[in-house]
Amino acid sequence: MAELETSIVTDVVLPAVLAVLMFGMGLATPARHFRAAATRPRGLLLGLAGQLLVLPVLAVLVVVLFDPTGMERDIALGFLLLGALPGGATSNVLAHVCRGDTALSIVLTAITSLTALLMTPLVVLGATAILYGDGVQTTLPFLDVVGLVLVIVTIPVTAGILVARRRPRFAAAADRSFRIAGVAVLAFVVAWAIYENRVGFWDKAAQTVPAALALNLAAMAAGWMLGRFTDGAQRRSIVIEAGFQNGTFGILLATSQLDSATAALSPAFYSLVMFASGGLLAMLWARKDAAGADVATPA
Q1: Which of 29, 165, 193, 240 could form a disulfide with 268 if both were Cys (CB 3.0 to 4.6 A apart)?
Q2: How far apart are CA 158 and CA 71, in angstroms?
Q3: 149 domain-assigned
């Protein structure tokens, strides 16, 4: 596995900023959203099934499918990381734009972030053991990953939820700033991951982008199939949630636990793909709703 020299970006800046963003995500999850999701548990269970069960399987299948094309082992490991990541907070914005169930989207992102404490290391270690045996596990120690998830994701999200409960006005006022900062940070870390792999970039992009697109489209298709068992608003949120992962955290895991900037390319390119596909889908849904409203409005 390629060695990656540590830097202030990987050791200090990225973990600290990601923890702050996870706190902001917790702020956006007031108790009323949990109550709203609990009153309609079918959508919640279907969304969790797509994120926690279906996505890891799809990630393994994508690696198996693209491995004969010459995919590097580090890039493949990056995709296995993707299958174990919690949801991305930007999905909540798109769920609102496309008139999905915003409360459901927010709660799904929060729950998958909290369960990442165990799900992320278990899924990654299980998937790598299935595909590559036990050798990879020595470079991805279980307790190290658990500790990282606890400090970077679980504790900040929990703290944000508690603050939102006690200071709802502050949480509502800060939400927009955290979301804007999240997009800016994601753009920075994606650019950084690409810069670190500037030597042989096009070869790695040719391996990574088609697999990222395949995984993203398969995840959203699976979300659509699961969403058929609930109403239209919840279905839209389930589709968006299935296709959006916390790419920033994936890049951090790749660089800190796998010591590989190449592995970081998988979540980096996936982030670009998911924004393009999810944004397009949300726009089409929004335009469809607008067209329907125009037709329903009397002349």
Answers
A1: 193
A2: 38
A3: yes
The answer to the question of residue 241 being in a domain is: yes
* DSSP sequence for the chain: -------HIIIIIHHHHHHHHHHHHHHT--HHHHHHHHHSHHHHHHHHHIIIIIHHHHHHHHHHHHGGGT--HHHHHHHHHHTTPPBPTHHHHHHHHTT--HHHHHHHHHHHHHHHHHHHHHHHHHHHHHHHTTGGGGGS-HHHHHHHHIIIIIHHHHHHHHHHHH-HHHHHHHHHHHHHHHHHHHHHHHHHHHHHT-TTHHHHHHHHHHHHHHHHHHHHHHHHHHHTTS-HHHHHHHHHHHH-B-HHHHHHHHHHTS--HHHHHHHHHHHHHHHHHHHHHHHHHHHHHHHHHHHHS--
Q: What is the CATH number of the domain that holds 127?
A: 1.20.1530.20
Assign 9 a pLDDT band (cuts: 50, 70, 90). low
pLDDT digits (tens, 9 = 90+) for 13-51: 778 888 888 888 888 777 788 888 888 899 999 999 999
The predicted pLDDT at position 52 comes to: 94
Range of the domain at 220: 8-287
pLDDT in tens, 261-299: 889 999 999 999 999 999 899 889 988 887 765 444 443
- 245 DSSP β-pair partners: 87
Are the beta carbons of 101 and 237 closer than 8 angstroms?
A: yes
Q: Per the domain annotation, does 294 fall within a domain?
A: no
The tally of domains found in the chain comes to 1
Is residue 3 in a domain? no
